[in-house]
Amino acid sequence: GHCTAEATAVEAGLAAADVGRHFPDHEQLLLGVLLDSSASVAASLAAVAESYLAEIHDLREDLIALGRAWLAPLEAFREHFAIVRHISAEVTHLPAEAVDKWQATGPRQARRELARRLQQVAARGLLDIADADQAAERFILLVPSSVVQRSFHGALPLGRVEEDALIADGVDDFIRLYGPASR
Known about the structure:
Blueprint: H1 5-11, H2 16-22, H3 26-53, H4 59-70, H5 72-76, H6 78-89, H7 96-123, H8 132-142, H9 144-150, H10 160-178
């Protein structure tokens, strides 16, 4: 089957023979690679949040630019997301603490950084945010996640027009929730 750990390892640039010889437990190997790359993805997203939210000129346009930039790791870290797709399918068979560690070093860390930056935007009166962590989670759900889900973590890329429409719709929803005039 294509969804084997070997297939994933090959997609991630590891020779199948090496994987089989050195790591009888493929899932552990993939989790190890995933944990390493999760930290890199989170760091990349922290930099994105910082650069796009440091100065706001036009809230809607800047949030759209942030949403697009938040998707850049799908391209830049293709191997990582190949493993994410595989691990997600196998998640019920994996040790809970390993999954938790991956979530903590990757997605949760990125969300915390985004929350910190959104809080700073709110402090300038540009957003009305009571709970920054929740706002960050909502931004991710409304803006990049629609593209991530429809493209299966970048495996089946969408056209630019469709991506832009999804991002803009998500940003409009986010502003309806958190725009200062909406409360």
